[in-house]
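Incident log entry.

Two folding requests arrived from the same account within the same minute. Monitoring flagged them as a possible duplicate submission, but the sequences differ. Recording both here for audit purposes.

Request one:
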Amino acid sequence: MQDPEDLGGLTHAGKVEYDDEDPQDSVFIAPEKESVASANQYVLKAGNTFIVNDALGDITGRDDGLFVNDTRVLSELRLTFGGRAPSLLSGAVSSDNAAFTAHLTNRPLPPLGGSSTPEGVIHVERVRVLSGTVLNEAIELTNYGTTDAVVPLSISFASDFRDMFEVRGLKRNKRGEIVPAHVENGEVALGYVGLDDVERNVRIAFSPAPDKLFANRADYSVQLPAQACVSIYVSVAVQVKPHSAKASEVSTAAPPHAPGTLHLSQIDAARPRVGRAAVRAALVDAHLVMRERRRSSARVRSSNPLFNAWIDRSFADLGLLTTDLDSGPYPYAGIPWFSTPFGRDAVITSLQTLWLQPALARGVLRFLAQHQARENSAFRDAAVGKIMHEMRRSEMAASGEVPFALYYGGVDTTPLFIVLAGAYAARTNDFALIDELWPALDLAAQWVAGVCDRNRYGLLDYQRASEGGLANQGWKDSHDSVFHADGRFPDGPIALVEVQAYASAAFDTMAHFARHRGDASAAEGYAARATKIRTCVEEQYWMDDANFYGIALDGHGDLCRVLASNAGHLLAFGLAERSRGEAVARGLESTLFHTGWGVRTLAAGQARFNPMAYHNGSVWPHDNAICARGLARYGAKAAAVRLLQALFQAAVNFDMRLPELFCGFPRRRGEPPTAYPVACLPQAWAAGSPFMMLEACLGLSVDAARREVLIEQPMLPEGIDWLEVGDLRVGDATVSITFRRVDGKVVASAGQGDVRVVALL
């Protein structure tokens, strides 16, 4: 078969360009309004650009699109034949998340050139890859019929230039100016000047040139001989630039004073090539990027192929979401709604994967230190020393319509930043980074201490500073996630139970750092603060009648007597008194919490319990990973293994990729877990979850200062006879460790090397 890239396989009668669609055209029928693809969505990402499309490869304009810096620059991209969508054979993203491929076939085509083409004769392959702010696509048509065919092919496109917050449903009173789409030099140009005084331009190019090119559609009449193939190439290039001198001073990433800001001038504005060479170059580059990210981590392999597929997909999703910034690699939170830096999500993801790839934590710590609040702002919920919650580069953020250009409304990110620094130092013995970060760590600790000093019990609490910010500022940040036993919403300030574990651990970390720096007085003060918080939690949050900790204290000091998974975080960070922690572990394993697919965020029977709610009864993989860590820490390692097993089985039903969350209905024989309809997929801390759970089940920890790997009572899930952790870096050396079942126990063995592997009894 031939694969011509030149004009030989296509007719080009005049290559006419039109700005308006020709209503009298008898061959090219207006495309159907509705796509016939499944509800599944597929994503690619490159830097601050990502695309969400359906299984056909189409963009429909609902909750999908091509996005650059949180603006939808392409809201429609559809392939039709004679006005009809092709039939779907399959759609998939490559195993390393570098490229999307759809396999399609034709429906019956109208009689053109003397004969009609029956259904299922033309195979259509769409291969798509992102490179920077350029989308490249190859569309290959192969005629498996016995007669020549004439295929009327159309590519439809449009852009609404909507901000991500608009796509999510936020209404705006005013928008910028959309430049009417037009044909220019054989390309289609789309444009928008936002209220942030920034131009967003899109150019769509084709090779070979279409027969007719409109402002919203390219039409081809493909002459396709029997047993031959023909390719069409499309590129979509996005350029973001200042509209005026004023705009050139403003970044779409964050307020101008923020360090590490990505300025408009850094966005590549070069006109892309279009054609086979461009697609192949982009594919090679994407595969190499993903391969290098995978090589930066230790390897995990087991005797179970399905488990391996889950682990591989999780690594690939982390690679997809990781963006290389000046400060180092940074995992963006999730696609489509949160493909941007989040503080809490990145810290949790880094903690999940720290034992395997500490470089990710290093990049996160540096980035968050660079963007630490240096001034107070009620609008942005900023206070000196706070660590950012969220950064947005969109028009609405840059113009001040929403406070999220650089937003600090998270109560837990700041103590978790300190906790991550401590965990990183223990894992790597890299105290040079701690010295570099010390001013930021000191400021962060001062902020935590200052808030605790204003609380009647010395606890870390929150209350939003402006109406535009988040009402709830823990990880369960929906408006209805914190309440009293009767369903009433509490008055603020609110002191969440799990946040006290983070704050206590942060003060313990600062005490350790202070001792390391020779400041005994500061160490004593920090240790006293940590003890005070632990004592207060035991006195104020414990519920004897429920054998559980309540979710929060309200502004009056009254306990929200609600059973929620938040208490599992106390175990993960070692705050709970031993017997009480063991009681919480039993509660988390009970049917009130455990669905069979994982632990719910809220126990069944509580006020506001709803297994379909975002935070009030659903299952969040990252929450389960933290709970599994806590279970193992409090002597319930078998329960942690069962939790890992449950999430693994859920992942099998989600095509080996755990979503951000799923519904908390009880598991029933023969039924899969129920998806949450608008969950991000992939989501960074969901992708990182199996690694934290596996670390807990293996009882593995790294002591870099002693060049040791410590292993305590390892356990493996059912169906796994052996598991290998390969190329685990400890200082400047590496070690590979194999865990095997021997006489009913799991035994660890290591290869030769400079790293000691110590089994703790």
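Request two (distinct sequence, not a duplicate):
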Amino acid sequence: MTDFVTTRLAECLARYQSAIPGLADLGKQLSSLNSAISRFPRPLGDRERGESRDEPPSPQPSPIKGEGAEALDALIDLYEQCYPLLEKAMWSAEPDFSPLLACYQALFREQEALIQRRGDDDRHHFILSIPVADRPPHLRACLESIYQVCTLFNYGGNASGIWDKIKVVVAEDSRDENNIRRHIDLVEEYRQKGLQVFHFGLAEQYELLQSLPQPQRERLGNLLTTQPREKFHRKGQAANRNLSYLKFLQLTEDKDRTLYYMVDSDQHFCVNRRTESGEEAVYALNYFHTIDKIFRATDTLMLTGKLVGDPPVSPSVMAANFLDDVTAFFSRLAALTGDQACQFHGAQGPLPGEAAYHDLAGLFGFKKKPETFPYTCRLEGAHDHGACLTVFARQLNAFFFGEHLTRKTWFSYGSGFTQLAPARTVYPGNYIVNYAGLKYIIPFGHLRLRMSGPTAGRLIAAEIKARFASFNMPNLHRRTTEAGLDDDFRPGVELNGEGQSIDLSDEFERQFFGDLMLFSTEELVTQADVNQPFAQNVIEAVITRKEAELLALYQQKHEATVDKNRQLHGLVFNAGHWWLRSPELALALRQIQTFIDNIDRNFGEHSLAWRQIQSAEHRAQRKQQIVEALMNYRAERDAWDSLF
């Protein structure tokens, strides 16, 4: 009998066929295939061919041929038919999630063993890029998530002790030498675990950049940086990502069978699910398997997944709705007592909808409802409201690093993983291209503006239409780690006074002008051919209109934020509530006051960013930069395209 092991598949079908529609039919197909396979002669093993018993068996068995190959193909396809049925059930409220997930993962590992037994595996290789700047805790979490996906799903197999089809490039951009050493240590740690990880250091990046002919290098200065050797750090995520493309070209062995996956260090290859006890991160998506199928079955050039977890936007566009939710928490807390058992647990109302965290969601076509979302306490075990308030206050200032306590995005299975939709936004922490798609980069990195992914997405969508697609395989986004705020670098956010004073004026300024560039570009591509240079007068006319619209919206948001912060201060400190009479809450109250002060510092009348946005002179300088960047886009793209 041919040695095709399908034990896990048989167990799964037997266990769940009565609960999950469609599995019973697959069980009949498996029985029929096993009956047919049992009549095939068993192929000779290496030792039966006369190979010495003293030599280890070959890690790659000879490919199956003839009727055996046809039967094996049919078996492998049976797993493909099974996965969507299990996924739909797993993300419903019916079967117990954890056992079904373990079964689902085991099926992929068993299918991979069959694919390796068949031989001639022509699926895609993946090269991942992780740009990282002074973020060892984030890098560790990201690498661990990749390792877990490889271990649990085993895409491509690891007969030689490494996952042959997966390579990871850690693109260094740190300023701190200690952090660089920590990153290198992490690379070595995960190499020992079987991941093919490469540290793409600053010196190597610089030398690779210098290897380009000088005229070409000068034309690519805005894309690949012009920083000197002695200051070749913190070049920005866009420049660092683009430099990693040059490393891709070095590592590519078969450009027709290689995909390039861009990841941010604060992204994890898992998703979140809501449980009665809070949020649970689960490795329930086989990213590499699904992405390979999409690129083999369609003419996609660029594929982007979204993000779940912490919002992928700046706190500068979340302050108003966050204040609403913080105020709602204290209003509810005021109606309770401090020594009462905590009431902030379990599912408390509907989940936030898409872009619910964004104060200006209407700009992106989302209808924002005037509602608040409840805080879910993270404490376990018996505790009272005083303990709940202590933890809540401790978490508040993480908001300025992008963590939203009440409006996370949650994973939803929807219509499955492989269904594509036209995309208009590149999520820099989760997009994939094939070799031809390497041309479609995220430009304008030299401006250091936010919203670079959505801006690039509008340009790319205008050029390649549906070949730029979105799919339902998000990464989990976590702004902060267990290491805390002190062991993390976030561009545009400054900590002063032992973490008490937080200044995000740089990020806030880059957000406003990033919005101006995004919405100007969005209108521009409807008026002009993206394959031709944009005319200066057309760009300037569009920017003038968008500037007036955004100034009005930002003014409304500014006034609302100032008013809501004032109301929150009054509710917490001036209304005589029970927490003011509790000495053990003194630290929590100081943390809440620090949060309110930081809101005023960053969004009040005297905030630096707000003064810059209001300054006609400053806006004129920024607008000129944007005009020049858009005018030069086509020429820079032509220079970039010549690399490929």
